[in-house]
Amino acid sequence: MGTISLPPATMNGMRKVIIKRRVCLGFISSTRLDSFMKSDDWGLLKNLVKKANYLFIEDRLNYMRFGNIVSPPFSSVERALKIALQSEELGFHSIVFPDHTLMVPPGLTPNALALMSAVAVKTQRILLGTGVTDFARYHPSVIAQFFATISHLAPSRVFLGIGAGEAMNIKPFGISWKKFKMLKEGIEITKKLWSGETFSYEGEAFRLKDAFLQITPQQPIPIYLGANGRKTRELAGMLCDGWMPILETPKTYRENLKDVARGAEKANRSLKEIDTALQIYTAIDENGDEAMKRAKQYAGAVVSAIEKVEQAGYALEIPEDFPKKFYFENLLLNDESLAKFAECSLKVNEEIISDFFIVGSVEEAISKIEEFERAGVRHLMIINIGPDPKFVNRVYAERIIPSFSEK
């Protein structure tokens, strides 16, 4: 942690400005804020924050950051690596690696942690994190050691994205799975292991005796929770540094953010301490027509969150036995599950897709991002579904990212 030294005239109007690795907290008196924001020192500070890829949190400044989700399946591992490395060149603030053993649609699905390690040593600026991994497939000690190690390879550029787990990655392999208990206990254990202390832990999912690691993080590693239910959203507010759900509309995001705030309040924390992110499908083209055609091919994703579809004010005619809660937690890659999934996908219309996705022309995309920004999103993590992925990348690099960073 270091402190920025500014001229006395500027310091006179500030209580403190502290920059930590990855998180910059600024507390500036309101009487001097406007003049400070117009000064050269303010510009220098903003540029430093952006170039270092820190998150600047203050009452008057919360600029949107953009992440690129490198999502399987891929044509090759080399292709996956190339997509990830291009993210830094394009100006994205983060690369997110979904951690799947199996994936829908099926195809080449490499290990996310191995891919993340390769990218860590070939990049200089961009943040790297999972989106998300789980404590069912990896014991907390394995996750804690991996992320502690990678924090030395990519100092100040690593975050742990964690979730409750998904059936397709767990049940076929006979792995024991206690969703919420594993999640909560795993987060607590991981934090304790990162502290370097020797400790014992007696939980329902995990039991440790005199446990410790022989490597600790070079800097604090933020934990982001891929929470899509009320209990896990509250857990994000209580224990985590970021919230990164998937499949939200501006309306549902605004409402569900209240659960995160409630959890933060229970832990005597402020919501401002939490990076409010969102993983979202994005399809953009010149006039929007081809983008919608492409987005319809991913309508099944919306079906995985029927509870949120209803929360957003829509009604879908689906079988009574179809789960309303986050369906990816229960989806298996067998003929019966996939057939039911495909059948329900046909019920998703363009209005619903437009609400849950960023889809359309460049102007429509920017307008939708602004809606999410007003709903509280501060870190937008995109799943680029085309129709021309290169065009979408150029749009973000040349028009979207600069316009939101300069606000």
TrEMBL record:
Signal peptide: none annotated. Coiled coil: none annotated. The keyword Nucleotide-binding does not apply. One of its GO terms (molecular function) is oxidoreductase activity, acting on paired donors, with incorporation or reduction of molecular oxygen. InterPro entries: F420-G6PD/mer (IPR050564), Luciferase-like_dom (IPR011251), Luciferase-like_sf (IPR036661). Residues 75-379 form the Luciferase-like domain. Pfam families: Bac_luciferase (PF00296). This is LLM class flavin-dependent oxidoreductase. Keywords: Oxidoreductase. It comes from Archaeoglobus fulgidus. It comes from the Archaea. PANTHER family: 5,10-METHYLENETETRAHYDROMETHANOPTERIN REDUCTASE, PTHR43244.
